[in-house]
Amino acid sequence: MKEDIEQSENSVQIEIRAPLIIQTNKRVNEEKVENGCNEKTQNRCMVYLSTFVAVCGSFAFGSCAGYSSPTQSAIREDLNLSIAEFSLFGSILTFGAMIGAITSGPIADYIGRKGAMRMSSAFCVAGWLAIYFAQGALSLDIGRLATGYGMGVFSYVVPVFIAEIAPRDLRGALTTINQLMICCGVSVAFIIGTMLTWRTLALTGLIPCAILLFGLFIIPESPRWLAKIGRQKEFELALRKLRGKDADISEEAAEIQDYIETLEKLPKVNLFDLFQRRYSSSLIVGVGLMVFQQFGGINGICFYTGSIFESSGFPSDIGTIIYAIIQVPITALGALLIDRAGRKPLLLASGTGLVIGCLLTGISFYLKGHEIALKAAPTLAVTGILVYIGSFSVGMGAVPWVVMSEIYPINIKGAAGSLATLVNWFGAWACSYTFNFLMSWNSFGTFMLYAAVNALSILFVIKIVPETKGRTLEQIQATINAS
């Protein structure tokens, strides 16, 4: 009886003590979260490092895009190129990017995200070396085509890789760094291009490629890609490496595995299979955003900013410098806001600013053409262009790439990503090619046309584009499929 009484008392004490222990542990965990314990930051160090390595590809992208502008006169003088030959040198970049866009998805699916970035870096290195040693137009064009191909692959695989490794609460901000680094690459090429020879400037393009190639030996592969191809042990190691050795990855791993198992039951898809009804929602959103991003006029305005300022009566050198400076901080602001404000609010705010910028610039050309308020026209033009560039940088420049990396199911991500990237680069070529023809037709009408396209993009975002903030990639797919 004495032993029974003692056991009873002990059991009561255990029952009393257990809830207190649970409550104490719960309170300690809550205090850690409230106090901003650095354990969370330590667990995400590999995510930040992996993102940094990946966006070196984005910087290389920007270096390629910004190379031709500050080097035009020097290259033409040194190699005796005609305007037509240099125009081919500049425009062949987009053709290389289109080829890269077509092949980027299948390559990233076949050899992995890291393998695709490694191959893209190799093309960029070969292209820059061909430009550096060029003695005529042919070598220049081959080098430019190779760097363009690398750009096309980078433009797809970098945001996809970042989206697949990032935690849900950081995915938007980290993916937006892709666009930020592209802007940095362009701005740096513009600035140092005024101080270096064109051959030396080509060598600077090797620096981000070298950092990327070295960093790829350190960072893990995308866990979702590893799970997709059945490399279970490597999948768990990669996810553990990204989340930290003390993190509980069981729930996230199970969610990814369940989703992969569901996808394995689906048939393999090619480019033509994308047009099935089951993929229509994702395809319309991804491709639609790319169409509105490019046909809203960005590449025409970007490539010919100097001539726009000159036509309006504003000094082109001052306007171009302001343009280069304003891109980076505003793109950084968009990166800070995307996971707080959400994707749709940024797209809507950006679209509204694009419409206003086009209207202001169009009105300035209208005033100049009708000789009304001639002193106000240049100020109105530069204000409109800066509003346009700022609005594009904060939303429409980066967010479509973020959404594209989020909405496609992993079984069609390669083919669908290639299609969206191809559409993007075709739009870039079409817009830049037709801009001068449109301006010679009617400057006011050109910007009114762009304003109309950007107004349609606002309606498209309101009606079609889903909000993906704060959701896992698997939850996004479940929502799209349910709709």
Provide structural commentary.
With 483 residues, this protein is mainly α. It is built from 21 helices and no strands. α14 runs antiparallel to α17. It starts with a helix and ends with a helix.
CA radius of gyration: 26 Å
The class by helix and strand makeup works out as mainly alpha
Give the N-terminus to C-terminus distance in angstroms. 66 Å
Number of strand segments: 0
Determine the fraction of residues in helical runs and give it as a percent range: over 70%
Tell me what portion of residues adopts beta-strand conformation.
under 5%
Low-confidence stretches: 11-42
> What's the rounded overall pLDDT mean?
81
Tally of separate helices: 21
Largest sheet report: none
SSE pattern, N- to C-terminal = HHHHHHHHHHHHHHHHHHHHH
- Outline, from the CA principal axes? globular
InterPro entries: MFS_dom, MFS_ERD6/Tret1-like, MFS_sugar_transport-like, MFS_trans_sf, MFS_Trehalose_Transporter, Sugar/inositol_transpt, Sugar_transporter_CS
Family: Belongs to the major facilitator superfamily. Sugar transporter (TC 2.A.1.1) family. Belongs to the major facilitator superfamily. Phosphate:H(+) symporter (TC 2.A.1.9) family.
GO molecular function, one term: sugar transmembrane transporter activity
Membrane topology: Multi-pass membrane protein
